[in-house]
Specification:
Length: 574
């Protein structure tokens, strides 16, 4: 059954749906609004306390529920109003409203005379409150208690709060107040001290995912788990937002016609397109490019993103998200990131290793400030690019803390030599800083014990690779023709001629790393083939040799299409 045809059918599922849903179309958030305490997700502590109070008949006369929007404040208030006034409970040990008795049905349909709901955002004046106070004096018309639900209570004026205070101090026994607010700090302390306060938590992504899955299953919609996970993440703790996103995504999916086929599923990409967000992998790539200082690449990426209708504030939030995750991984490298793919997880772990804590902190600050700028800018797309450029260029600046002392560098170099793994060098040490260190260390130290010598050019290139001098390694491997190699001296011809200072840089780095003086000269002589050419020639020769092998010949004869492509050595036994 498709989702559309379901809208007009009556469904008997738990959580129960309200009467209206049988008629016209109802948004999911409303349709699936919890009607019992057990259906309120993510607020177990509050539900437990309320249940205990109801059971032991020791319920206070005023409550204040606070929390982010969409976490269930008003929903809880309404369930509580029904639980207080329900007369249909047969069992004594349950506190849930029965849902079928007179008061339950009337409150659910918002037409019970004794349950008054007021939005303080539009009723801020003292007169509005006076009206409530005067009606408090009369006994409830049919229910056990008069219940006043005041939403966004922090919006009340100072006078309104003062007027309310007297009633809160000496409330009539037949009256209960339930306040809800997103901004508890704006509620006077005198009011707070007379209320039983509940802080509703943001709903965790996991709990939200589980709940959305159950809704999707009961709606019999085809939605991929990845799409649900993404909606849960975008909703940022607000269940109402999550339900709206799901609603919107399903509507779009249906409208495009894709959703009408029973075999097609709403995917994470549909959700991303709707919200205007990058894929995880793209965000991580963008983040990495920024930290490599590849500014023009990042600007191109964001331009494409914006042209496709991407949400700039969303992008900033995603970048902040990545910054946070990388910092978390610094503290806890094996942290399971849950929703992300294995490749994304590996990519993030590698990035986290490569970036230092100060760099991540700085990134966080720039992005946080930038987010405000982007949100308040009349030209958000340009503001976004300005922030990214700032972030990109700042990677070239030396870090704020002072440079390490000479002995520290020496130690650093030693430990560096010990690490065998090769990773992208994005660390705090910027090219600018590295060069300055080398200048400082120009003075060579001839130390008998630590002397490092090389037999051939290949050993030097391997040595550079081991020390993550990727650019110089590439230079030696691909561009350098060896003419002469002596103790502490190299003569080379470089493919691109003499117009660079690369050979000076090479001498400096070798001097630093080997603790002895190195000089590198350039010459016009032809010299030997480059290391790369040599390696390629060697591989070619081996390929020819392999083809002569009788066994290989046999294979080639049997399989007409077969070719010898590559030779892979068997792993050496230790
Ligand atoms: Zn009832």
């Amino acid at each position: 059954m498709t989702w559309l045809s379901l809208q007009n059918s009556s469904v008997s599922n738990s959580p129960p749906i309200s009467q209206e849903s049988k008629g016209s179309y109802q948004v999911l958030a409303r349709k699936w609004r919890p009607q019992a305490f057990k259906d309120v997700i993510g607020q177990e502590v509050m539900i437990q306390i309320l249940s205990n109070a109801l059971k032991s008949d020791r319920l206070g006369h005023a409550f204040i529920l606070t929390g982010e929007r969409g976490v269930g404040k008003t929903t809880t208030a309404r369930i509580l109003a029904r639980a207080i006034n329900c007369v249909g409970r047969s069992l004594k040990d349950t506190v849930e409203p029965c849902g079928v008795c007179g008061p339950c049905v009337d409150i659910l349909e918002e037409r019970h005379l004794d349950v008054i709901e007021m939005d303080a955002a539009s009723h801020t004046s003292v007169d509005d409150i006076r009206e409530i106070i005067s009606s408090c004096r009369y006994l409830p018309s049919s229910a056990a208690y008069k219940v006043y639900i005041i939403d966004e209570v922090h919006m009340l004026s100072k006078n309104a709060f003062n007027a309310l205070l007297k009633t809160l101090e000496e409330p009539p026994p037949h009256v209960k107040f339930i306040f809800a607010t997103t901004e508890i700090h704006k509620v006077p302390i005198t009011i707070l001290s007379r209320c039983c306060r509940f802080d509703l938590k943001r709903i965790s992504t996991e709990a939200m995912g589980t709940y959305l899955k159950s809704v999707v299953a009961q709606e019999e919609s085809n939605v991929e788990d990845d799409a649900i996970a993404l909606i849960a993440r975008f909703a940022d703790g607000s269940l109402r937002d999550a339900m709206s996103l799901l609603d919107q995504a399903l509507n779009m999916f249906q409208r495009t016609g894709e959703g009408s086929a029973e075999t097609s599923f709403l995917t994470a990409n549909h959700v991303r397109d709707m919200v205007g967000a990058f894929e995880n992998a793209e965000i991580i790539t963008l983040f990495e490019a920024l930290h490599r200082g590849e500014i023009s690449k990042t600007l191109k990426m964001t331009e494409n993103f914006y042209q496709k209708g991407g949400d700039t504030a969303r992008l900033m939030k995603d970048l902040l998200d990545v910054t946070y995750i990388l910092s978390r991984l610094k503290v806890d490298p094996m942290l399971d990131l849950g929703l992300r793919t294995k490749e994304d997880q590996a990519h993030l772990q590698a990035l986290s290793k490569a970036l230092s804590v100060p760099v991540l902190q700085r990134t966080w600050q720039i992005l946080s400030k930038g987010w405000e700028e982007v949100r308040s800018s009349p030209i958000a797309a340009l503001a976004l690019q300005m922030v990214l450029m700032r972030l990109g260029y700042i990677q070239d600046l030396p870090p704020l803390h002072s440079w390490p002392s000479f002995s520290q560098i020496e130690k650093q170099e030693d430990t560096k030599a010990d690490t065998k793994e090769m990773s992208v060098d994005l660390s705090e040490e910027t090219p600018v800083q590295r060069e300055s260190q080398e200048v400082k260390e120009e003075r060579p130290i001839e130390n008998g014990e630590n002397i490092i010598s090389f037999e051939n050019l290949e050993e030097i290139s391997d040595f550079l690779l081991k020390h993550k001098e990727i650019r110089l390694y590439t230079l030696l491997y691909q561009e350098a023709h060896l003419i002469e190699m002596k103790d502490g001296s190299l003569t080379l011809r470089l493919n691109f001629g003499e117009d660079t200072k690369s050979h000076l840089q090479l001498a400096r780095v070798l001097t630093t790393l080997t603790h002895r003086k190195w000089t590198v000269h350039l010459s016009q002589e032809t010299g030997q083939a480059t290391l790369r050419e040599k390696k390629e020639a060697l591989e070619k020769a081996r390929l020819v040799e392999a083809q002569q092998d009788p066994l290989v010949q046999e294979v080639l004869k049997t399989f007409k299409e077969a070719r010898v492509e590559k030779i892979i050595d068997e792993p050496k036994e230790e």
